[in-house]
Amino acid sequence: NVVHRRVHLERPQPSARKNLGYLEKHKDYVKRAQDFHQKEDELKKLHNKAYFKNEDEYHIGMRQHVTVKGRALKKHVQLSKDQHLLLESQDAQYVGMRERADKKAVEKRIASLHFLNSGRPNKHMIFVDDDDIPTGSAAATGTRAGAKACLKNFDIAEHLDTHPALLGRRSNRPLRKQLETRSFADSADLQDATREAYQELLQKQERAKQLQRVREELELRQHLRKKGKRTKVADATEGRPAQFKWTYERKR
Q1: Is the CA virtual torsion 105, 106, 111, 117 positive or negative?
Q2: Residue 218 backbone phi and psi in degrees, to 5
Q3: For residues 76 and 245, which has the higher predicted lDDT (pLDDT)?
Q4: More confident residue, 234 or 141
Q5: Which of 19, 28, 139, 175 has a beta carbon 3.0–4.6 Å from 146's, enabling a disulfide?
Q6: Cα–Cα distance between 139 and 132 in angstroms, integer?
């Protein structure tokens, strides 16, 4: 132990053989050998298990498999008519649930957007309380004529706290404080956000239509699997499935 022993280093790949890639070291060989022997032992266990297997022994998996040329293949299970009806009804229920969720999201988005830039036939109605009527006026006395005169002279711009020239706007109506301080939101950002909101609304509406088409097709398949005489009334189109009419059968 006292005598110094030379540490033998493994040489790297020579520069003339760089094109051959990495030169394997002893530790790489050990890992490769261990992996090889592990797989070899596993194959021996499988060979012994197959050699000593009892072919007459029953296993529950035999009911779902069949042997073809020495290979165990899974049987193709044919579903009954009731099972098909149950699967298609569950699929139709799930698609209908997604359709209702998308329609509710569309209604909520429409309620938040209100299509502000489009023309609308309705008017902006303002309800005035007694507190909004100045004291000492003719309307404060409770007479009908005084109330009409006060409402006729009611200052809408002051009530909305904006400039009279901006009363014609349906949206983005700044307040007087914003006009004085000039603290406005960036119009480009507002337009981009509005455009993205409308695009999302259109996408949800289109997806709701597609889900409705799929749901109707699944419901039609479910009805076609049932008993009864039927006659085809109309062929399938891009917007709806084929239409059938069932013959009425009298129940005993």
Answers
A1: positive
A2: -65, -40
A3: 245
A4: 234
A5: 139
A6: 11
Would you list the DSSP string of 78-146?
A: PPPHHHHHHHHHHHHHHHHHHHHHHHHHHHHHHHHHTTTTS--S--------GGGSPTTSSGGGT-HHH
Element (H, E) at 71: strand 71-74
Distance CA 78, CA 63 (A): 14
pLDDT of residue 111: 76
Q: Residue 239 contacts by C-beta under 8 Å, 6 or more apart in sequence?
A: 213
Q: Which residues contact 154 (CB under 8 A, 6 or more apart)?
A: 128
User: What would the two tokens of residue 139 be?
Assistant: 């309307």
pLDDT tens digits, 53-73: 887 788 888 888 888 888 888
Pull the structure tokens for residue 100: 């209702």
